[in-house]
Amino acid sequence: MDIIWQVVGSAAATLTMFGFVPQIQKILQTRSVKDVSLPMLVQFSLGVLLWTLYGVHIEDNIVIFANIISLTTLIIAIGLYFKYKGKDADPRKN
């Protein structure tokens, strides 16, 4: 029965790790963050950081790894937010 929960945890971790990749792709394609909420990205990042610390505390490698990857994608999204903030989606105007 333990293996089933490991599979469930791994699947959940995989979905969470790459949850912001579609948003990153959209930002890169449109060169716009008009519909992206910075407070949401920051709040989610802080939550993921706390989950990482919790994973370290309970010594759970799945929790640690998944949240480090999630935090990495969130940091990329935040970086893109500041790169494209205030810029028009039309590359001819940038």
Please outline the helices and strands.
Layout: H1 2-17, H2 21-30, H3 38-58, H4 61-84
Could you describe the 3D structure shown?
There is one protein chain. The protein is mainly α and 94 residues long. It has one domain: Monooxygenase (Up-down Bundle), CATH 1.20.1280.290. 76% of the residues lie in helices and 0% in strands. The chain is built from four helices and no strands. Helix 2 packs parallel to helix 4. It is elongated and about 50 Å long. The model has no long low-confidence stretch (mean pLDDT 90).
Keywords:
94 residues, Monooxygenase, single chain, 0% strand, 76% helix
CATH class equals: Mainly Alpha
Radius of gyration in whole Å, from Cα? 16 Å
Counted by DSSP, the helix tally is 4
Strand-pairing-aware structural class? mainly alpha
Shape: elongated
For the biggest sheet, the summary is: none
| DSSP summary, beta strand count | 0
- Approximately how much beta-strand content do the residues carry? under 5%
Poorly predicted regions: none
Average pLDDT metric: 90
Shape-level CATH architecture = Up-down Bundle
Q: SSE string, helix = H, strand = E? A: HHHH
Distance between the termini: 56 Å
**The number of domains:** 1
Report the CATH topology name. Monooxygenase
The helicity comes to over 70%
